[in-house]
């Protein structure tokens, strides 16, 4: 099996995995929120510990808040799905591939402020529903993960730029007789 056949075969498999991730993500998040009050391990994953059991309204809001970052993740996985589709067709150096990498970089960069917003909203929601007035909290913060995501996003944008230049060189070489 030549290398292009291996790329096509692996890309088809990864594309199938991406489809599974896009379908499973909202389902897993919904199940986690439905069962949150019954599993201490899930409660420990929250940015702040609730002082009481979360009511159904809070669980629904929590699901909606969690879907902020999940939608970004699903969009990034969708871009990977498209990228692996292009690779599966044998398209390596073309404008669509470059655009997939460029959008992945942008999406990862956008995920940082949205992650901060999500955590802030989650803390506000939990304290609103389970903390008494006067003890509610507001939390805004950056983590090392935020800086790492920014670095990865900028790196992907740079890689897309380099790939675009390589694509242009390839097109120029194809024009030379």
TrEMBL record:
<keyword id="KW-0812">Transmembrane</keyword>
<protein>
    <recommendedName>
        <fullName>DUF2975 domain-containing protein</fullName>
    </recommendedName>
</protein>
<dbReference type="Pfam" id="PF11188">
    <property type="entry name" value="DUF2975"/>
</dbReference>
<feature type="transmembrane region" description="Helical">
    <location>
        <begin position="16"/>
        <end position="36"/>
    </location>
</feature>
<feature type="transmembrane region" description="Helical">
    <location>
        <begin position="56"/>
        <end position="78"/>
    </location>
</feature>
<feature type="transmembrane region" description="Helical">
    <location>
        <begin position="107"/>
        <end position="131"/>
    </location>
</feature>
<dbReference type="InterPro" id="IPR021354">
    <property type="entry name" value="DUF2975"/>
</dbReference>
<keyword id="KW-0472">Membrane</keyword>
<feature type="transmembrane region" description="Helical">
    <location>
        <begin position="146"/>
        <end position="163"/>
    </location>
</feature>
<keyword id="KW-1133">Transmembrane helix</keyword>
């Amino acid at each position: 099996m030549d290398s292009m056949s291996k790329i096509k075969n692996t890309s088809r498999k990864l594309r199938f995995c991406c489809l599974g991730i896009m379908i499973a993500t909202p389902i897993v998040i919904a199940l986690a929120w439905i069962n949150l009050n019954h599993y201490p391990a899930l409660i420990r994953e929250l940015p702040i510990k609730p002082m009481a059991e979360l009511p159904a309204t809070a669980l629904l809001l929590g699901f909606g808040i969690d879907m902020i970052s999940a939608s970004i993740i699903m969009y990034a996985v969708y871009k990977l799905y498209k990228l692996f589709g292009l690779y599966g067709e044998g398209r390596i150096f073309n404008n669509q591939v470059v655009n997939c990498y460029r959008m992945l970089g942008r999406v990862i960069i956008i995920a940082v402020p949205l992650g901060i917003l999500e955590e802030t909203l989650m803390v506000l929601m939990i304290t609103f529903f389970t903390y008494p007035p006067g003890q509610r909290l507001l939390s805004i913060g950056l983590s090392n993960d935020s800086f790492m995501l920014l670095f990865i996003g900028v790196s992907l944008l740079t890689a897309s730029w380099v790939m675009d230049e390589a694509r242009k060189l390839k097109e120029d070489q194809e024009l030379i007789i």
